[in-house]
Amino acid sequence: xxxxxxxxxxxxxxxxxxxxxxxxxxxxxxxxxxxxxxxxxxxxxxxxxxxxxxxxxxxxxxxxxxxxxxxxxxxxxxxxxxxxxxxxxxxxxxxxxxxxxxxxxxxxxxxxxxxxxxxxxxxxxxxxxxxxxxxxxxxxxxxxxxxxxxxxxxxxxxxxxxxxxxxxxxxxxxxxxxxxxxxxxxxxxxxxxxxxxxxxxxxxxxxxxxxxxxxxxxxxxxxxxxxxxxxxxxxxxxxxxxxxxxxxxxxxxxxxxxxxxxxxxxxxxxxxxxxxxxxxxxxxxxxxxxxxxxxxxxxxxxxxxxxxxxxxxxxxxxxxxxxxxxxxxxxxxxx
Length: 335
Fold this sequence. Notes:
This protein has 12 helices and 11 strands. By secondary structure, the chain is α/β, with parallel strands linked by helices. The strands form 2 sheets. Strands 1-2-3-4-5-6-7-8 form an 8-stranded parallel beta barrel, surrounded by 7 helices. The protein has a two-stranded antiparallel ribbon with strand order 10-11. The two termini are 57 Å apart.
């Protein structure tokens, strides 16, 4: 039996550095039906420097990217409270560390699963630290070629790590030409590990398609409203969209576990008798008339005349008696 898709709602930086907003996200996500909530643990001094150029000017509140990471930080004790809240509402606590120090914190916090972001896939120092914990690992493949992934996968397999891989496109938001849904199957065939999809499309249809194509894990960003400030908002689903996605994915799961045997249509026997048709004539015809194609019509239900699929066998035969328009045509009506 196919396992139920594992759905991960990512908060990332949608909390904007507010502990209160973060906890309100946990409560909201818990009502959607996903199994896990994901965070990012940033410790600015350990992972970044003032020279980091990425997205420097996106915020009116932060002079540098380093300042932004500082504003996103919570204390170790606050993170422990976040984990406890997740436990209380039945959500797995998943987190992406961006430094070895963050891994130390997450071990003390009690992380369920480590998520390795696209930019860290080839950071073997961090991967070494994570594998030492023995916890499950989810790898995002967003910025990695197959040759780069090969190196990481070999590293993890040498460590006997319990890991899975997500097809991911590092663009926020992604457009259909960038989804790479074909890669889901390629990853499964190449690495023979559980494979999922990390979605940045801000559309429920993408996740539905990914699961239908074999994704066993689905990760996506969530946000309260599409007008909220934040670097990932444009690539996020709302809470309502998340509920709809969960419902759709669960239907697909049921369908995948209930394959239809197209050779057995016994259950449609009664419906077939109602919807299938019998041959009839479309005009008054005299005894001795030779039936042509233009004399024939098909009418519901089946069983009251010769089956409509047998019409060729009727053409060219003569009537044994007069027939009235719309009468069913049976074997005894023909010579």
